[in-house]
Design goal:
The chain has helices at 2-16, 24-43, 51-69, 76-82, 104-138. By secondary structure, the chain is mainly α.
Length: 144
């Protein structure tokens, strides 16, 4: 009984922070549910004969969601480049400054930053593709 209450409180925190305009809220809810199911299938209380396999499948789904969120913004190289302040807000709409005045060194920094953004986007898209492919293949067997 206490465990169910604890789950509901955790679920409430996720729902409370939900934003209708933020698709990632769905991933937060999905991750929560997968974690709960993985705990159950790993506990030995499941009636499924191959519960360890199901738990492993759920762990892989959780890993993929975490990979989506691990967007590397704390990477020391990115932090160092971004602190050089090339992209300054030139108006309230946060448009970039005139890049034609960049020095060759500033252009090189900008190229590195753009490459970092592109690589991060590729990692995130790959994680989403793998997650939904994995779910479409296995999700219907994740029940007890």
């Amino acid at each position: 009984m206490f465990e169910k209450m604890k789950e509901k409180i955790e679920l409430y925190k996720i729902i409370k922070n939900d934003n209708n305009f933020d698709f990632a809220s769905i991933l937060n809810l999905l991750r929560f549910k997968m974690v709960q199911m993985e705990k159950f299938f790993s506990s030995g209380d499941s009636h499924v004969m191959d519960a360890k396999r199901v738990a492993k499948q759920l762990r892989y789904g959780i890993f993929l969601i975490d990979r989506y969120y691990d967007d590397r913004w704390d990477d020391p190289e990115y932090v160092q480049l971004s602190e050089q302040g090339l992209w300054k807000a030139s108006d309230p709409m946060n448009r970039f400054t005139d890049r034609t005045s960049f020095t060759p060194e500033e252009r090189a920094v900008e190229e590195k930053l753009l490459a970092f953004y592109i690589k991060t986007e590729e990692i995130q898209q790959d994680a989403l593709k793998r997650l939904f492919k994995h779910m479409s293949k296995h999700m219907q067997s994740w029940w007890d």
